[in-house]
Every structure is written in C-alpha cells, then in structure tokens.
Design brief:
Layout (H helix, E strand, L loop, with lengths): L1 E2 L2 H4 L12 H4 L2 H4 L2 H6 L1 H15 L6 H12 L5 E3 L5 H4 L5 E3 L2 E8 L5 E3 L18 E5 L8 H12 L3 E5 L11 H7 L3 E6 L11 E4 L2 H9 L1
Parallel strand pairs: 1-2, 1-7, 2-3, 7-8, 8-9
Antiparallel strand pairs: 4-5, 4-6
Helix pairs in contact: 6-10, 8-9
Bound molecules: ligand BV8 and zinc ion.
The site of zinc ion has 7 residues, from loops.
Amino acid sequence: MLTGAGISAESGVPTFRGPGGLWKSFKSEDLATPGAFARDPKLVWEWYEWRRTLLAKVEPNAGHRALASLEDSSPDFSLVTQNVDGLHERSGSRRVTSIHGSIWRVRCTGCGAESTDDRVPLPKLPPLCGCGALVRPGVVWFGEPLPRKAWAEAERAVSNCDLLLVIGTSAQVYPAASLIPMAAQAGARVIEINLEETPLSGITSLSLRGKAGDILPQLIS
Ligand code: BV8
Ligand code: ZN
C-alpha cells in the first residue's frame, strides 16, 4: 500500500492540492522548507500548530480501518505513507513506513534530540529545547532527504510486491511518487484509488475512481 493525503480527506483533514487544500491558503515553498523555517520559525510553527489542532479533533475513517484489518489478515503486507498525520497508527495499523516523518515528532535543531510531543496547543511557539535551540517539526520538508531507513523499507516493499494499491495521492512529489513505477517495473500490478486521474494513472493496471473510504472496505470484504 502507498497512501497520500486523500486517504485522510474523509476524516476532515484538508489535502495539499485539493479544493480548500493546505497548499491553497499557503504556498508549500513558503512554509514546508528549511529556508522558510530559518526565516520565520514562528510562522512555520503556527501552520503546524493549526494542522496539529485540527488533527487532534479528527478520527481515522473507514479507509484507514480497512487497511488496518487487511494488515491483520495478510502476512506479507506493507503500508508506506506520505502522510504525517498519524491516522494510520490511530486506526490500528502497526507496521507503517512513514517516509515524510510525523507531525507529532519534534527534533531539536541544536542537539538533535528527537521525541514525540503531541501536546495541543504547544505551550510556546516556536518551542525551544532544554539546550536552548529551536525545536522543529519532525517532518521532511522540500529540499530535504527522506529518512534513510524508511526510504529503504519503502523501496524494498514496492520492489518485492505482487500488488501495489496507490491510495489518495496526486503522485506529484518525488521521490515518493517514484515508488509507483518502481513497483510496476518489478512486475507488480498497480491499482490506483483516487477521485481523479493522476500523472501516473497511465502506468496503473486499474484505476478505481472514488473515495478511499468507500472503495477500500469493499475491496477487503
Ligand atoms: C528531496 C511533509 C532531495 C511535510 C511533504 C524544485 C525545487 C525544490 C525541490 C524540487 C523541485 N522539483 C522537484 C523537487 C523535489 C521535491 C518535489 O517533489 N517537489 C514537487 C512539488 C515537484 N521533493 C523534495 O524536496 C523531497 N526531497 O527531493 O530531497 C535531496 C536528496 C538528498 C539530499 C538532499 C536533498 C522531499 C519531499 C517531501 C515534502 N514533504 N510533506 C508536511 O506535511 O508539512 S510533501 C506533501 O505533499 C505530502 O507529504 C505528500 O507527500 C505530498 C503530496 O501530497 P499527496 O499526499 O499526494 O496529497 P495531494 O493533496 O497532493 O493529493 C491528494 C490526492 O488525493 C489527490 O489526487 C486527490 O484526488 C485524492 N483524494 C482526495 N480525496 C480523496 C482522494 N482519493 C481517494 N479518496 C478520497 N476521499
Ligand atoms: Zn537541543
């Protein structure tokens, strides 16, 4: 499985590029980059605080739950997500490979100390580490490399699978999107579940047009 923001849309989480999307009100390059954080850590943290506050109020949906139950019934099942919202884990998925980090993780820009901090709201923006340095969200920004271990896990999963379900991603961000042709080249059947066509629809064996929360429960029943 490879998931994107679309699987969380039915939980009420705005996607990046859809209507009312996160990138609509803010431009990704203005916020989700190391440069933006260096220029204005408070503004970047206000954006993440707004997302964390929203995420704290939402629940996983039938799409997340369907994947969690599929994991239980399939021995060799891998779930790679681009999402940082933690909803796969909250719906019961245990083995989640998060290639863009987590909005609930924080990392010190000074001493590198990393922890889970899911307090909403945070007491102070931008948060400071005990060592005095700025703390940043534990997510991968544009221009930053993906976490090595998670990326290696993701490559291994798609290179050794018979079937890749690509769920709710616009397949525009790399290297995440390259996992899709990687699976096809390795001989996997690729099925896309999305409301709309994406740049990679052409290499899928099948495109299921509709909501993940409607389609996934039917697929696994
Ligand atoms: C890297 C975490 C190199 C943060 C994210 C030019 C300049 C600078 C960089 C680049 C450039 N050109 C290319 C790049 C590389 C860049 C990139 O790909 N840019 C894109 C915009 C062209 N990539 C990077 O910078 C990556 N790093 O390349 O590093 C390097 C290597 C070594 C050493 C140093 C450097 C890092 C990319 C990670 C960025 N972080 N998120 C945060 O969340 O704040 S990206 C963010 O957008 C998400 O994580 C996700 O990965 C990505 C795409 O979003 P989607 O999940 O697809 O969501 P989207 O809204 O786009 O689409 C939703 C879809 O769901 C739609 O198709 C919709 O139809 C569908 N949908 C909606 N509702 C439903 C549904 N489907 C089903 N059911 C529904 N109900
Ligand atoms: Zn520190």
